[in-house]
Write a structure and sequence with these properties.
The protein has helices spanning about 5-20, 45-55, 55-60, 65, 95-100, 125-130, 140-145, 170-175, 190-195, 200-205, 215-220, 230-235, 240-245, 250-255, 275-280; strands at about 185, 225, 255, 260. By secondary structure, the protein is mainly alpha-helical. Residues about 1-5, about 15-30 and about 265-289 have low confidence and may be disordered. The chain binds heme C (12 copies).
Length: about 290
């Protein structure tokens, strides 16, 4: 409820109030004309708010740039944001004050945990990823995770790690926040990280005496989830062509990659012990596919 009448008299009294408060001031003029310096005499909060965190609304706009006139003479003195902000998609959103709660502190932004569309007026790559790689994250609102603007949450805020040795910094070796199911392996992922789910492979390789032991899991199982290399990706043609066609399966003699038994002659094909001459140093440098 507006108390127009009492305000009118208050505004008329302003000049004498000002004189009383500041005896040194010039004598009151007959016609009172408000300036932005007068507002603080009756309004404590707005000037204090602006002083503390007004930012551009303190330095690039005055009270009266926004509040043109005063009741009761002028009743509509609350400005629309769009008077000064136009030309960007963001300024076409409705309900500016739902997030910019206090126009006198424009960057003190508060929003609920269900906001997505307004974010997209400034950020686009994240929604593109969430849509291209559907996951349960795609169904969450942006602000469900980013509940304060600019805040990056840790995965472990909402999820358990796969094993005790894993810290929050490890998650992004394999997962990206906006496409969490599109698991990829960075080339320096320590093998221990795989052991959370592949203890058998990890333990077998660790117990092996063959040179594969010194390789990272991801040196062989590169980049993409479930990628399984073929021996020849790295070893090329290690034996004489004749033997290769007679014994096409490396594993018959060498066992499995995680536990090579190449030092023993193959029991099923003793004749094949011959390839030694051609098997010499095939320089098996791991090559990327
Ligand atoms: C003499 C005291 C006094 C001074 C000086 C004064 N105001 Fe006010 N102002 C009031 C009162 C009282 C009200 C409440 C009026 C009402 O509810 O109708 C008010 C209301 C307002 C409102 C709310 C209007 C609305 O529609 O809700 C704004 C904005 C405002 N003043 C801004 C200013 C600004 C800006 C200045 C300085 C240029 C200023 N006031 C100076 C007393 C003052
Ligand atoms: C950038 C524009 C802008 C500037 C600058 C600005 N205001 Fe405001 N002010 C607003 C808007 C918008 C509202 C309405 C807020 C709402 O509806 O919640 C408002 C509301 C008010 C109100 C009424 C509500 C309240 O908070 O009591 C007063 C009084 C007021 N302003 C005074 C001032 C004073 C005094 C100054 C200068 C120190 C000032 N304003 C500077 C935009 C501005
Ligand atoms: C009278 C003009 C005016 C009005 C009305 C106005 N603003 Fe502003 N606002 C400005 C100016 C000028 C700047 C500085 C812009 C610049 O530097 O490009 C600014 C800057 C801002 C900023 C950035 C502040 C910073 O320091 O980085 C925000 C946020 C903002 N305004 C929000 C709003 C909202 C929300 C409203 C409506 C409640 C609003 N403004 C109404 C003039 C206004
Ligand atoms: C859902 C919340 C939300 C709504 C609604 C909203 N804003 Fe914003 N606004 C933000 C966020 C978050 C920022 C980014 C702040 C930063 O850069 O730190 C921002 C920044 C701004 C800026 C400064 C940066 C720039 O790009 O100019 C202005 C001005 C602004 N908003 C004006 C408005 C206006 C006008 C409206 C209404 C038409 C509005 N906002 C509605 C959340 C919102
Ligand atoms: C008006 C434009 C604007 C709006 C609206 C906006 N932002 Fe921002 N956002 C920015 C700017 C500018 C930055 C700072 C960018 C930088 O530092 O590279 C930022 C930074 C961020 C960051 C931190 C980025 C980093 O690299 O640390 C996150 C997270 C973020 N915003 C999420 C959101 C979410 C979620 C929303 C919706 C609730 C939102 N933003 C709305 C402009 C906006
Ligand atoms: C499941 C939680 C979650 C959701 C939902 C989410 N984010 Fe993120 N966001 C994160 C995490 C975690 C990071 C940090 C990623 C990193 O460090 O690599 C991040 C990073 C960001 C960044 C920084 C730059 C970047 O891309 O890494 C921005 C900006 C951002 N998010 C905006 C958004 C927007 C906009 C939405 C909605 C369309 C959104 N986020 C949805 C968790 C989420
Ligand atoms: C603010 C909470 C929150 C944060 C932070 C968060 N998540 Fe999630 N995440 C969820 C929710 C909620 C689900 C859906 C769970 C369900 O329905 O069972 C989910 C689901 C997932 C899923 C399964 C997706 C599917 O479609 O099956 C993966 C993987 C995942 N999150 C990984 C991550 C990673 C990695 C991070 C960090 C980059 C992260 N999350 C950050 C809340 C979060
Ligand atoms: C070495 C790679 C790797 C690392 C590091 C990793 N993850 Fe995963 N994560 C996976 C794989 C692979 C799956 C899919 C498993 C499946 O399909 O059952 C998965 C699935 C998930 C899921 C969905 C299934 C579930 O278990 O609920 C969540 C949530 C998850 N990871 C969170 C995390 C978090 C949090 C971290 C960091 C603490 C993390 N991950 C670190 C590889 C990794
Ligand atoms: C969160 C658990 C999890 C983590 C961590 C994880 N994996 Fe897996 N991985 C799985 C699941 C589940 C499967 C699917 C098993 C199936 O299909 O039988 C799988 C499948 C595989 C396969 C394919 C197996 C086949 O039979 O084709 C390979 C290879 C593999 N993972 C390697 C790795 C490597 C290397 C790492 C570490 C960089 C790793 N995984 C980390 C859960 C995980
Ligand atoms: C990603 C590349 C890669 C793949 C795939 C790979 N290897 Fe190797 N292999 C190597 C490297 C590197 C060495 C060590 C060479 C050295 O140090 O001289 C090696 C060594 C070997 C050796 C000698 C072992 C020793 O301890 O002396 C044999 C035998 C061998 N590999 C067989 C295989 C077989 C069989 C497969 C398929 C099941 C296979 N490799 C798959 C890279 C690979
Ligand atoms: C030298 C390359 C190489 C290394 C290092 C390696 N793998 Fe493998 N892995 C293979 C090959 C090749 C296969 C297919 C089976 C075969 O022919 O031996 C395989 C099969 C698998 C499979 C599916 C079959 C199974 O045994 O369950 C999983 C899971 C797996 N590897 C995980 C791992 C993990 C975890 C590590 C690290 C601890 C690792 N691998 C290290 C080459 C390698
Ligand atoms: C018929 C049995 C047999 C088959 C099949 C076979 N190898 Fe061999 N391989 C051997 C024997 C025996 C040696 C020599 C071992 C030694 O020198 O101690 C050898 C040596 C090697 C070496 C060199 C080891 C070193 O110490 O330098 C590599 C690498 C190798 N084989 C890879 C392969 C690959 C890859 C395949 C499949 C394309 C394969 N082998 C198929 C029996 C076989």
């Amino acid at each position: 409820m507006r108390k127009i009448v009492s305000l009118a008299s208050a505004l008329l009294l302003l000049a004498s109030v000002a004189v009383a408060a500041e005896p040194a001031a010039a004598p009151a003029k007959a016609a009172v004309s408000l300036t932005s310096a007068d507002c603080v005499k009756c309004h404590a909060k707005a000037p204090a708010d602006i002083d503390a965190k007004g930012r551009a609304h303190k330095t690039k706009a005055t009270c009266q740039d926004c509040h043109n006139g005063h009741p009761p003479t002028n009743r509509k003195i609350i400005p629309l944001c769009g008077q000064c902000h136009e030309g960007k998609p963001h300024y076409k959103l409705g309900g500016c004050l739902q997030c910019h709660k206090n126009p006198h502190q424009p960057k003190e932004i508060v929003f609920g945990r269900d906001v997505t569309d307004p974010c997209l007026t400034c950020h686009s790559p994240q929604i593109a990823q969430l849509k291209q790689f559907p996951s349960k994250h795609s169904k969450l609102a942006c602000s469900f995770c980013h509940d304060v603007h600019g805040k990056i949450p840790q995965c472990t805020q909402c999820h358990k790690a796969h094993m005790a040795e894993q810290g929050p910094g490890d998650c992004k070796r394999c997962h990206k926040a906006h496409q969490p199911k599109n698991v990829t392996y960075a080339a320096d992922t320590p093998s221990k990280q795989c052991s959370a789910c592949h203890a058998k492979a990890f333990n077998m390789l660790a117990a092996s005496k063959a040179k594969h032991k010194s390789l990272l899991c991801v040196t062989c199982h590169q980049e993409k989830r479930k990628m399984v290399p073929s021996c020849q990706d790295c070893h090329g043609v290690p034996h004489a062509a004749g033997n290769m066609s007679k014994f096409p399966k490396c594993g018959e003699c060498h066992g499995i990659a995680h536990a090579l038994n190449n030092r023993k002659p193959a029991p099923a094909a003793p004749a094949a012990a011959a390839p030694a001459a051609t098997a010499k140093k095939t320089a098996p440098a791991p090559k990327k596919k």
